[in-house]
Write a structure and sequence with these properties.
single chain, 207 residues, mainly alpha, 10 helices, elongated
Length: 207
Amino acid sequence: MEIDLKKENSKNIFLIMAASLAASAFFQFELESISTTTEMFTAGGASLMLSVVLVMLANIIPQSVKHKFVFTRIKNELPACRVDKLCRNDHRVEYQNVENRWPEVFSQEIDDATRNSRWYKQIYKPVKDEKEVLQAHRSFLLYRDSFSGLALIFLGTMIWSMVGNPEIIGEIKPVVLLIQGVLTILSLIAARVAGNRFVVNAVVAAE
């Protein structure tokens, strides 16, 4: 289902990218200096076109790389590797029950990679089309891919501020970097929370 979910999210990701770029442009060039309708449409059109490119680039980035950044882990980054810990901290889950039902998933004797694989086969696959699981999965993919695009914008702006020609668009204003940095961090946090919720929602749905 992931390919379909990613397609469903494409419009929202595009709009998030466009909003970030438009806000950056308006603060960089100052709202009062954009004096004509033509200039406003030009700035908006450029943001939309660049958003298309960024969505394409975000889709090209390997999923494993995205996951490593979102969960800030080099190895065993997927949240299902820690499904036992996540379920212990979620009030919706009666831990003793799930531990008894899926001992091969919740055993403390297995490694994280094995836990992730068993969660996928034994818990997620049977309930992957349940509404609460689909919605959590969709949200995770949306925020994960949005983070990738926003991070590209932030990184690109940082590089331009250091090596770009200031005569083209002027010195990058601190408020632009602040806006982009905040949006990037918020999307990372949202992706991490959504990913953890997705894993636990599958357990709840399968109980």
